[in-house]
Design brief:
Elements lengths: L16 E5 L2 E7 L9 E7 L6 E5 L4 E7 L1 E6 L2 E6 L3 E4 L5 E6 L4 E7 L4 H10 L6 H7 L2 E6 L3
Antiparallel strand pairs: 1-2, 2-3, 3-10, 4-11, 5-8, 5-10, 6-7, 6-9
Length: 150
């Protein structure tokens, strides 16, 4: 059920809350507060060579749309290349991650079906010690398995 407090809004191309997380610039287009926790939409601008961890999201599904650049997407035991215009859907409960490939940065539109990823990424960027990350991720129902395979 949607809260009656949610109001329609629009953002221009570069509008939204910006922050750095693990070497990528993240622009929050629809965060937890604006969607009453229903979903999160982020625009992620990542340099060549950037890679997420291999992780499992237990509470939500992920949809990813490559706006610019190239990615290698990993899910389960599979991997696939994705160029600008490609989209990817990752159901909850399956290990996944992505790496920016090629010499150019990538720009990705990233949607999760519950809100809060924006909070996790900001908190993750401020984590003082790597060993604190697993407990923090668990609060968001995320399991970090380690680095992506080569």
């Amino acid at each position: 059920m949607t809260s009656l407090q949610i109001k329609p809004y629009t953002l221009e191309d570069d509008e939204g809350q910006k922050f750095q997380s693990l070497g990528a610039l993240v622009l929050t287009k629809a965060g937890f507060e604006r969607t009453d926790g229903a979903f999160t939409v982020l625009e992620i601008m990542a340099p060549a060579g950037f890679a997420t961890s291999l992780n499992i999201r237990y509470a939500d599904d992920v949809a990813l749309f490559v706006l610019d650049g190239r990615l290698t997407l990993y899910w389960g035991d599979e991997k696939q290349e994705a160029a600008a215009g490609s989209d990817f859907f990752q159901p909850r409960g399956t290990p996944y991650g992505f790496r920016v490939t090629g010499e150019r940065p990538a720009r990705v539109l990233y949607l999760t079906t519950s809100g809060g990823l924006d909070h996790f990424l900001r908190e993750r960027a401020r984590a003082p010690r790597e060993r604190d990350v697993d407990a923090m991720a668990a609060r968001y129902k995320i399991e970090i398995l380690g680095p992506l395979p080569e």
